[in-house]
Q: What sequence folds into this?
C-alpha cells in the first residue's frame, strides 16, 4: 500500500516539475517588452478562456482589456493578436515584410505538405504565386473574356431559379455550383450542370472541409498535433482532401494525353507545359504535388468565399426589403432590361455600397489568415520575436467604430458620402493586404457585382410562407457563411425605360 502511494506521489511530483519547467521556459522565452495578455495556465495556456467555436469573439473582448496588440498562449504556442484597423493595416502594409510569412498550422501543413500558394513559404511560394497570377490573367481574370463567362453563368443561374417557380429552396448549394463553374472554366476548361455529380461532390468536399477546419476538435488538433493519431475531424478533412486529389490526378493524366504547348486550354495545361519545360531541372517547383495544392486552393477559395458572400447578400435582402427595393430601383434606372456588366457599376453607387456592406457585415473570414513574423520586430513599442504566430483580427477591422459609424448594423450608408456617391473604405480588408493579398480579388469583385445585380434584376427575394424570423447567425467553420436557410425567388417585372447617361 505504502509503495503504491509512494509511486503515485512520485509521479505527481514529476508531472509538477515538468509543468513548472515548461511554464518557466515559456516565461524565459518572452521578452519584457512582449505584448501583454492574460496569465496562462500550465500546459493549456489560455485555452480555458477561448470560445473554440467563435474564437474571434474572445479576442475582441481581450483587446478591450489589453489593447490593440496583445498576446495569448494556446497550449505552448505564443500568439500575438493585432486588433483594430489602424494596427492591422500598419502591420500588413507598412511592415509587410516583417509580417509577411504564413503561419505554420498543423492541419494545413498536413493538407498541403508545404506546397502550393496559400500556406507555402519562401521561394516556393514566390514562384507559385508569380506563375499563378500571370496564368490566371492569361485565361481572362480581370478581363472582359471572364466577364462574359460570368454573364453566361448568370443566365444559367436565372433559368435554375425560374425552374423552382417561386417555391422555397436552399440557395447555398446552387450559388456554390454557379461560382464553382467560373473557376472550373479557368482551371479545368469547362463548366458543369448544377446537378452534375462531379461538381456537387467537389463543392461538397471543399465546403465540408472549411466547416470542419473551424470546429473545436480541429482547433485542438492544431494546438496539440501529437494527438493526431486519435480519431477526429482532422481525419475526415484529410480523407476529403485525398478524394479531391484523386479526381485531380485523373484530370492531369487525361490532360497529358493531348497537351499542346501552342494551345493551352486551361490552367492545368499551362502548368503541365511549364513542368515539361523544366523536367531537366532537379530543383524545379513545377511538379504534380505543387499543381495538386495550387488547383485545390484555387477551387476551394475561389468557390466558398464568393458564394458565401452572395448567400449573405440575398439573406440580407430578404431581411431588409426596403434596401432590396432601392437596389432594384437603381438597377431598373441604370441597367433596364440589359444584362448587368462591370461598366454599370460606376453608375450604381447605392448597389455598389450594398455589395460592399454585405462583404463587411458578412465577415466571411473573421480571424483572417494567420501570419508569422519573418524577423525580430519592434511594433507599437513591443518586441515580437521572429517566428511568432500572428492573428490580424479581421473581425476587429470590419467592426471598428472609428471606421464605421454603426458597425453592428447592416447599413449601406457606411460606403456612401453625403451626396450619395460611393465612398471607398480602406478598412474593408476582406481580401487581405500586403504581400499575401488575395490573388483572386479582381475575379471575386466581378462575380459579386454581376451575380448579385443580375439576380436582383430578375427576382424579389422573400422568406418562405410562415417564416417571420430571419436568423443572421453565421455558421461555425474556418469561414463564416450564413447558417443554412431557405428563400423564395419571385419573378419581378423590372422597368422599363433605362435612364440615359
A:
Amino acid at each position: 500500500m505504502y509503495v503504491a502511494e509512494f509511486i503515485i506521489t512520485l509521479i505527481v511530483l514529476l508531472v509538477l516539475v515538468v509543468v513548472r519547467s515548461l511554464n518557466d521556459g515559456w516565461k524565459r522565452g518572452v521578452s519584457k517588452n512582449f505584448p501583454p495578455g492574460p496569465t496562462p495556465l500550465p500546459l493549456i495556456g489560455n485555452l480555458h478562456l477561448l470560445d473554440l467555436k467563435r474564437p474571434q469573439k474572445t479576442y475582441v473582448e481581450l483587446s478591450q482589456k489589453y489593447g490593440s496588440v496583445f498576446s495569448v498562449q494556446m497550449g505552448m504556442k505564443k500568439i500575438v493578436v493585432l486588433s483594430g484597423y489602424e494596427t492591422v493595416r500598419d502591420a500588413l502594409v507598412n511592415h509587410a515584410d516583417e509580417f509577411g510569412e504564413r503561419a505554420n498550422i498543423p492541419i494545413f501543413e498536413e493538407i498541403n505538405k508545404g506546397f502550393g500558394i496559400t500556406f507555402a513559404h519562401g521561394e516556393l511560394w514566390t514562384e507559385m504565386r508569380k506563375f499563378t497570377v500571370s496564368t490566371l490573367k492569361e485565361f481572362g481574370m480581370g478581363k472582359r473574356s471572364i466577364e462574359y463567362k460570368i454573364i453566361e453563368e448568370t443566365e444559367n443561374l436565372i433559368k435554375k431559379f425560374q425552374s423552382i417557380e417561386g417555391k422555397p429552396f436552399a440557395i447555398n448549394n446552387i450559388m456554390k455550383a454557379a461560382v464553382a463553374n467560373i473557376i472550373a472554366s479557368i482551371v479545368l476548361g469547362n463548366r458543369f450542370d448544377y446537378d452534375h455529380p462531379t461538381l456537387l461532390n467537389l463543392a461538397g468536399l471543399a465546403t465540408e472541409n472549411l466547416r470542419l477546419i473551424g470546429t473545436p476538435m480541429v482547433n485542438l488538433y492544431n494546438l496539440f498535433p501529437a494527438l493526431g493519431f486519435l480519431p477526429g475531424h482532422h481525419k475526415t478533412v484529410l480523407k476529403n482532401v485525398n478524394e479531391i486529389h484523386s479526381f485531380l490526378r485523373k484530370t492531369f493524366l487525361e490532360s497529358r494525353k493531348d497537351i499542346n504547348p501552342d494551345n493551352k486550354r486551361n490552367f492545368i495545361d499551362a502548368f503541365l507545359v511549364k513542368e515539361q519545360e523544366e523536367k531537366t531541372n532537379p530543383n524545379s517547383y513545377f511538379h504534380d504535388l505543387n499543381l495538386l495544392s495550387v488547383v485545390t486552393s484555387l477551387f476551394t477559395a475561389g468557390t466558398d468565399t464568393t458564394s458565401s458572400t452572395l448567400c449573405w447578400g440575398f439573406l440580407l435582402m430578404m431581411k431588409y426589403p426596403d434596401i432590396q427595393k432601392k437596389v432594384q430601383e437603381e438597377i431598373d434606372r441604370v441597367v433596364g432590361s440589359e444584362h448587368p456588366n462591370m461598366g454599370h457599376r460606376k453608375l450604381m453607387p447605392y448597389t455598389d455600397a450594398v455589395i460592399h456592406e454585405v462583404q463587411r457585415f458578412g465577415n466571411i473570414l473573421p480571424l483572417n489568415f494567420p501570419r508569422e513574423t519573418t524577423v525580430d520586430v519592434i511594433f507599437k513599442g513591443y518586441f515580437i520575436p521572429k517566428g511568432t504566430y500572428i492573428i490580424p483580427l479581421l473581425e476587429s477591422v470590419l467592426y471598428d467604430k472609428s471606421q464605421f459609424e454603426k458597425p453592428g448594423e447592416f447599413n449601406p450608408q457606411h460606403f456612401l458620402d453625403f451626396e450619395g456617391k460611393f465612398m471607398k473604405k480602406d478598412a474593408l480588408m476582406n481580401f487581405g493586404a500586403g504581400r499575401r493579398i488575395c490573388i483572386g480579388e479582381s475575379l471575386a469583385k466581378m462575380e459579386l457585382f454581376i451575380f448579385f445585380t443580375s439576380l436582383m434584376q430578375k427576382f424579389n427575394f422573400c422568406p418562405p410562407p410562415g417564416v417571420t424570423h430571419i436568423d443572421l447567425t453565421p455558421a461555425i467553420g474556418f469561414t463564416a457563411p450564413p447558417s443554412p436557410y431557405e428563400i423564395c425567388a419571385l419573378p419581378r417585372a423590372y422597368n422599363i425605360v433605362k435612364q440615359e447617361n
About this structure: The chain has a mean pLDDT of 90. Strands lie at 69-74, 77-82, 101-102, 169-170, 371-372, 377-379, 382-384, 389-392, 459-462, 486-491. The first helix runs from residue 2 to 28.
